[in-house]
Amino acid sequence: MTALPDTQNRWRALIVLCVGFFMIVLDTTVVNVALPSIQDDLGFSQAGLAWVVNAYLIAFGGLLLLAGRLGDLVGRRRIFLVGLAVFTVASVLCGIAQSQEVLVTARFVQGVGGAMASAVILGMIVTMFPEPAEQAKAIGVYAFVASGGGSVGLLAGGVLTDAINWHWIFFINVPIGIATALFARRLIEDDKGLGLSEGADAPGAVLVTSALMLGVYTIVGAAEHGWTSGRTLGLGAVSLVLLAAFLVRQGRIEKPLIPLRIFRSRPVSGANVVQILCIAGMFSMFFLGALYLQRILRYDAIQVGFAFLPTTVAMGLMSVRYSARLTTRFGAQPTMLAGLPLILIGLALFSRVPVDGDYWVDVLPGMALLGMGAGTAFPALVTMAMSGASPRDAGLASGLINTTAQVGGALGLAVLATMSTSRSDALREDGVANAIALTEGYQLALIVGAGLVAVALAVTLTVLRPERTSAAAAAQPA
Question: How is it placed in the membrane, per its record (predicted)?
Answer without folding.
Answer: Multi-pass membrane protein
